[in-house]
Amino acid sequence: MTEAEYLNSFPTKRIKAVDGMAVTADVWEEAHDYHRHQQQLHARYAHGPGILSGLDVVASDPADTSVYIRPGAAIDDEGHTIVVAEPLSYDVAGATEGSFYLFLTFAESRPRSENGRVQEGAPLYVHAEFGLETMAQPAGGATVELARMQRSKRGAIVRDAADAASPAADEIDLRFRKVIGASPAAPASLAVVHIGGSGGRHGAGAAYLARTLRAAGKPIFANDGVPLSAGLAGYTLVYLVAHAGFQLSTDDMNSLYSYLQSGGTVFAESCRRDAQAANAADTSFNDLFSSLGIKLDTVATGHSLLVEPNLFAAPPAGYETDGLPIVRAGGGVVFSAADYGCRWQGERRSGAAGRDAIRTAHEWGGNILGLAMARHGQAASPKA
Hints:
By secondary structure, the chain is an alpha+beta fold. Helix content is 28%, strand content 24%.
């Protein structure tokens, strides 16, 4: 339907009820059609076509030729609201080699009675329906794209994209979905936990980081001095700062382990102002992660910390400015021997940090938060 046809299809008059008016089926239909078309017009032009919520497409687990569509809602190009209330399974085994698109479409049933028997005077019902269509090229008209894929061959196994920004062949590509109705993200929360001594300066650094990220549109708030034993489940990221060598209690170890197992992320580092105390803290961190069964690997090219959302060739300098900063990650833990907490508040061993250096450190903090939010989202949205 062209733009002109769409606009011309909308009624420009509505029924004004008067006493004694005969309400026939045609009158009733005309009155309700007016409101229905007005709602479609509003949906199309105020919100636009696209996905309102949900409708995530994920690969089967274990992987096969099926994809799952999670419940959600969308608006098509004609303003129809499409609701998928239950998870769906869709087998793409028959899709041909090459480009493959999965679309959601709107439909309505024929008028029918609720019980299957037509009774005089009883109303008939038109049910809103939806369909799933696969095409070899982008579709125009009243369709909503859910996913696309580049098929290597018919019957190839379908997998989730290892890199969402650059899906490989036979991986689900969600980059071109148009999301129009996602509600603002709930604020992320950052807990600053001090161990092996006390100190409030890193809490200030975390607060400056949070303020910078909020200004960039990423709502996050930092709480300083959070005890490990208080329960960490409500925090998106736990910033674990050691001021000297330490040994955690059994309760604190269990709290940290439970947090990591639930999809939480820990950013751990030692304060570098006192080099001797920092080395002792680094040793304690290594012992802690080993006892938790966490293997840390050096963050190298291609790691999400270096590319999402800000691109880095290598981890940037922190409080220390000599040599390359040591950053390792694994199992929900990011360990740094660079002391970014001090850099976030404009400090470095050689003196005050310049504006560009502080900005770079804050961008790096944004990448750490991005990793934490991704893990948090994965834990909150299990596969269908």
